[in-house]
Design a protein that fits this description.
This protein has about 500 residues and is an alpha/beta fold. The protein has twelve helices and 17 strands.
Length: about 500
């Protein structure tokens, strides 16, 4: 009898555990593709605007100078890549063709290319490469950073509304096929150029792998040209399936809404329009759309100088100014694409290089001070199905990308407590959602326990969390206990990472 009672109890507990246990959380609405997740991890990389404008002082290349204007005296793409890598930047995107239409690679689609200038002629005579895109890609690979290209859809060189008196009667006086009412097919030309870039190989025959392709929609002309975005995207997907495509509204990454290196404190990774739809305003893109129809995270394109191309009379932003920009982009879950234009020598200017290095020093001094280790004691308001091994709060501090703290599906608010084991002077936090399963969290607060044993809010205005949020305090607090509270979420929150920035002494940042 006693045996049967025990058996019945065991069976009942087993059945109860089956009835109450929960599987892993289901994806919430839109989720990122693998390429989008990998792209988001890059966080910070460089834009390199380089071409005829570098030598004419222009931004858009309306002068339509001949290729001889391109004459760098000391071009060294290795210098670019080495410097960017040392500055902690994960990649670089080169303007293979800007609005002026002059191509930096040895294209077969047009005579308007640097390969037809005197600089290239001299290099060929000495056996040197003249394909700047290929050279830059090789340098990026050499120094372990990623490579991408910008190919302007608008092409002044082919636009009949843009005067070109200096090219008349030369081999550069080419058919004006840009525009829906113009003879010829500009979209076909663009597809040819795009195909050349996405199938390009290094000198040793190794295919170039692109991490991003920039499809800028800017135009300064009244000429109406309907771009075949679908066809452009198909070419990229076919040949560079891992490349993220940037456009005003995607399809993979969107404009942040301004060119000044910031976004709003609240930023959603989703929107509800595509590149083919009516464009959102800048303010709408800064915010995004909570629970939108498409996963289209933001990228902030900003500049180290006032212009995109190098101009000697423009100041270079200090390391501190760049750090402020970083906090208002990467610190708010937005990738930062920082323009660092080479000068007429074909080198990144000394002052820009110095400011990039100071920027890197400030980032490291600020962010490389995580006092959390995986062995610290944690607790939480609840744990999904009581499964501490899979979903306990310790999963938020184990340093892994595939684990997270989670509660049951019917819970949208809760907390994690972290015992730092000793008193620290804490002045910042890094928190991350497990966005592989969607963006859920819309409000959070971080508390620090004071000397009297009372929790006090030190971050009280946290809104969207997303891929990564960095919160720095105006003044360090002494504490040994931290609590992260999720105050609002549209589905069960998944906290992937909680870091606490601080030190044993209170000297401050």
């Amino acid at each position: 009898m006693k045996y049967n009672t025990c058996m019945r109890a065991a069976i009942w507990l087993w059945l109860f555990s089956i009835a109450t246990a929960q599987d892993a959380p289901a994806p919430y609405l839109q989720v990122p593709s693998h390429r989008q997740l990998e792209w988001q991890k890059q966080e910070l990389y460089a834009f390199l605007h380089f071409g005829p404008n570098t030598f004419t002082g222009e931004e858009w290349g309306r002068s339509q100078s001949r290729p001889d204007i391109f004459n760098p005296t000391g071009l060294d793409t290795d210098q670019w890549a080495k410097l960017l890598a040392e500055a902690g930047m994960k990649g670089m995107i080169l303007t293979a063709k800007h609005h002026d239409g002059m191509c930096l690679w040895n294209t077969s689609t047009t005579a308007y290319k640097i390969g037809n200038g005197s600089w290239a002629t001299k290099r060929v005579q000495t056996g040197l490469d003249i394909d700047v895109v290929r050279m830059a890609a090789a340098s990026a690979k050499k120094y372990g950073i990623k490579f991408g290209v910008y190919l302007s859809p608008w092409d002044i060189h082919r636009d009949p509304a843009m005067p070109k008196p200096g090219l008349k009667g030369t081999i550069y006086d080419e058919p004006q096929i840009f525009g829906d009412s113009s003879p010829g097919d500009y979209n076909a030309l663009y597809v040819e150029q795009l195909t050349e870039l996405v199938t390009m190989k290094l000198a040793d025959g190794t295919p170039i792998e692109l991490f991003e392709v920039w499809l800028d929609g800017a135009s300064g002309s009244d000429t109406v040209q309907t771009f075949n975005w679908t066809g452009f995207r198909d070419v990229i997907r076919q040949h560079q399936p891992n490349a993220v495509m940037w456009g005003h509204q995607g399809p993979d990454a969107r404009w942040v809404g301004n060119e000044d290196g910031f976004t709003l404190p609240t930023n959603w990774h989703t929107i509800s329009r595509t590149q083919d739809d009516v464009h959102y305003s800048g303010e709408e893109l800064e915010l995004g759309v909570r629970d939108g129809r498409y996963w289209t995270p933001s990228e902030s394109d900003a500049r180290i100088r006032d212009g995109w191309f190098y101009h000697a009379d423009e100041p270079s932003k200090s390391g501190a100014a760049l750090m402020d920009m970083y906090m208002k982009t990467v610190g708010r879950s937005v990738n930062l694409l920082l323009d660092v234009p080479p000068d007429p020598r074909g080198l990144i200017a000394d002052i820009d290089a110095a400011n990039l290095k100071e920027f890197a020093r400030l980032r490291n001094a600020t962010l490389d001070r995580n006092v959390v280790t995986p062995d610290l004691k944690t607790s939480s308001s609840s744990v999904r199905a009581g499964d501490m091994d899979s979903y306990g709060p310790s999963r938020a501090i184990d340093g892994r990308e595939d684990t997270y703290w989670a509660m049951d599906d019917d819970e949208s608010t809760g907390w994690i407590e972290l015992d730092l084991d000793t008193v620290y002077c804490v002045d910042g936090f890094i928190v991350q959602e497990h966005v592989a399963l969607g963006q859920r969290i819309g409000g959070y607060t971080i508390d620090a326990m004071d000397n009297g044993g009372t929790y006090r809010a030190v971050v009280s205005n946290g809104t969207s969390m997303g891929y990564k949020r960095i919160d720095l305090l105006d003044k360090a607090v002494e504490t040994s206990q931290i609590r992260l509270r999720i105050t609002r979420a549209n589905a069960v929150p998944l906290v992937q990472n909680l870091q606490v920035l601080g030190s044993r002494n209170c000297t401050g940042r």
